[in-house]
Design a protein that fits this description.
The protein is of the alpha+beta class and 367 residues long. The chain folds into two domains: 207 residues, no CATH class; 77 residues, no CATH class. Helices cover 47% and strands 14% of the residues. The protein contains twelve helices and 14 strands. The chain has a four-stranded antiparallel sheet with strand order 11-12-13-14, sandwiched between helices. β12 and β13 form a beta hairpin. α1 runs antiparallel to α7, α4 packs across α8 and α5 packs antiparallel against α7. The chain starts with 12 loop residues before the first helix and ends with a helix.
């Protein structure tokens, strides 16, 4: 009789410490700023062998932009095929199903959920949501609509967007193997090929029968690592490619409009008037500051009490009306401005609100 399958109940202290190292390793893989082309091409040859195809010719491009333009220039000589679907079925769908089956029978559900969050969701937020999402959005914004539609209609699901920025997925499966999960031989070989591709720093690919178009990794990625890393650079591109194409972002928010491609000291309050993106409006408010916003957008003084004055910006520049309380420090005579709820009607009530419900007159009485 066969024994009960071995199930991993919890990580050992050593494995728990190792998890942090693994997360850092795969973050570095996903944020690579160079490409090992021979290593990537060897991985491509293995991928093609899984579906019975000969090794293809690889054409490299310096950025996702020239990669897309390269497709446009070569599309007539490189006839589309179903190969992208075959690779997707072999290295995405069936591989994923096989790996997940092994995980489900080998790791306790609560531990698996924890690992999936740490190496999937958490790491994926930095690599997938932050950098990969920003590059994807910028590419779509930069492409002519006709070319974007051509890419999508020509290939559909065959347009295979595997890249080193997907490292969080492979880091998750790799660590599970390290702690004792046994994958079947076929799944193991395919996983190793995919890992080699992402470890090489290779970007997106478009596969044809005998040719593959691949984008190289960026040459620079700048991060704000205060909390979870997000791409961030003030006054310079957050992601930069060798051919000059770049992605601008601040605090993980992608900035497509070229007017934002300057240092935030040059940002203007008036940009709030026509900016539709709520996240970018928030950045403008944070960087320009309420003093400049009140001045440049002609805030109207609604009420005054002692050293406090209540101002309101009548224009629609945020999700709710902007109301500001200005106050003068008695000792330094410096003026400060703080945002208060839009339903406050008097300066005294606004001052009470910023004092957590305590009327400032009470402070004066105590002194």
């Amino acid at each position: 009789m066969g024994g009960r399958p071995f199930v991993i109940e919890a990580l050992t202290p050593a494995q728990d410490a190792r998890l942090l190292e693994v997360k850092k390793f795969w973050f570095n893989v996903g944020s690579a700023t160079s490409t090992d082309e021979p290593r990537a091409e060897a991985a491509i040859r293995r991928m093609y062998s899984f579906i019975g195809k000969d090794a293809p010719t690889v054409i490299w491009f310096d950025s996702p932009m020239t990669w897309a333009l390269g497709f446009s220039a070569l599309k007539n000589s490189l006839h589309p095929s179903e190969l992208g679907d075959e690779l997707n079925d072999s290295l995405e769908t069936s591989l994923h199903d096989s790996l997940e089956t092994s995980l489900g029978t080998s790791i306790r559900r609560t531990l698996l959920g924890s690992l999936r969050f740490s190496l999937g969701s958490s790491l994926g937020a930095s690599l997938g949501s932050s950098i990969l999402g920003a590059v994807t959005n910028s590419l779509r914004s930069s492409l002519e609509i006709s070319l974007e539609l051509e890419l999508e209609t020509t290939f559909g699901d065959s347009l295979w967007y595997m890249s080193h920025m997907d490292a969080y997925t492979y880091g998750y499966y790799d660590f599970c193997a390290e702690i004792g999960v046994q994958y079947d031989a076929n799944a193991h070989d395919k996983l190793e090929a995919c890992k080699e591709y992402v470890k090489a720093g290779a970007g997106w690919m478009i596969p044809f029968d005998d040719t593959v178009l691949i984008s190289r990794a960026p040459i620079a990625i700048r991060w704000n690592t205060a909390l979870e890393p997000v791409i961030h650079a003030d006054g310079e591109p957050a992601v930069q490619y060798a051919d000059g194409w770049s992605v601008w972002a601040l605090g993980g928010v992608t900035l497509e409009n070229v007017r934002y491609h300057v240092h935030t000291t040059h940002w203007k309050a008036e940009w709030l008037l026509d900016e539709e993106n709520a996240e970018i409006r928030r950045l403008i408010i944070e960087t320009v500051g309420y003093d400049a916003i009140a001045r440049d957008l002609n805030a109207v003084k609604r009420d005054e009490w002692r050293e406090y004055a209540l101002h309101r910006i009548e224009r629609d520049v945020d999700v709710e009306p902007i109301q500001l309380l200005s106050m003068t420090c008695p000792s330094t005579q410096r003026q400060y401005m703080i945002r208060v709820p839009p339903d406050v009607t008097t300066a005294r009530d606004a001052a009470t609100w910023i004092n957590h419900g305590v009327d400032p007159a009470a402070f004066a009485a105590e002194s």
